Amino acid sequence: MTKDKFTGGDQRYLRDAQYRDPSRLTARADLHAKYGTADVRWFPWMAGQIEWPSDGVILEVGCGPGWLWSEAASQLPSGLRLMLTDLSAGMVDAALDRVSGLFEMTAGSEADAQLLPFCNRVFDVVVANHMLYHVPQPGLAVSEFARTLRPDGVLIAATVGPEHLRELWEIRSEVFEEEPVNRTAAVFGAITGLPIIQQGFSSVEWRAYEDHLHCTNPDAVIAFMTSTPPAEDASEQQLRSLHVAVRRRFEKGGGSFDIAKEVGIFVARDPYQ
Ligand SMILES: C[S@@+](CC[C@H](N)C(=O)[O-])C[C@H]1O[C@@H](n2cnc3c(N)ncnc32)[C@H](O)[C@@H]1O
Asked: What is the whole-number distance in angstroms between the Cα of residue 153 and the centre of ligand 1?
């Protein structure tokens, strides 16, 4: 069983707890931002993967705190008109605070990816980054992306592959006695997501972002892991075991811990409409 309240799941938990505000997501993003080894950072890399129309109308679904737009602003056309949406009102507010004023126009709205409150064929680009593995029916969301894109529009959907953070899934398995399987990749990942995107688009390609983590701070790993279930809900005993398991990895690495990444984007064109 790969689905749980975080992956594939519980919309109330995601909206009212996990993503009520950016704090838990920030703990996870910090690990990547501080200990990633890639030459180009994730959001600028992603923004460089397509040609953005100079006055394009753009929808981001599951926008989170809007990091893409602030981190890549200098390489994107200032004439973009952005519609930032998320299941969580707290995330929409955080995104609008961060992004307003950077582009020609920025608006925001709460919206479920599975039922978008927009007309057919209005967007030049739809962005769905690291969010389809949270959606109960990702196929429904993909059909909404295809419906709301212009016929010549493009979908960018970021997700992870089965090897992503393998070492952390091994720790999780050790402490919580679970299968050592990357659940996010199992629900909607680089492999499992492909047929789902292909339901809505006739042209789909996967582009990998090459990176790995060289972490020198055990607390950053603990903060990452305790930001989601099951560690978020762990007993005292489980937390102690988690600290021991993490500390062991750093001892074995002589003070550092290398963690694999497998992450990238689907670029999809020619929506079925
Ligand atoms: C992992 S965060 C990614 C945020 C942002 N896209 C990024 O890459 O930084 C996932 C986001 O998807 C949102 N989300 C989860 N389920 C959703 C749904 N059904 N419809 C719209 N947004 C959803 C969450 O509230 C959260 O902000």
From this structure: 21
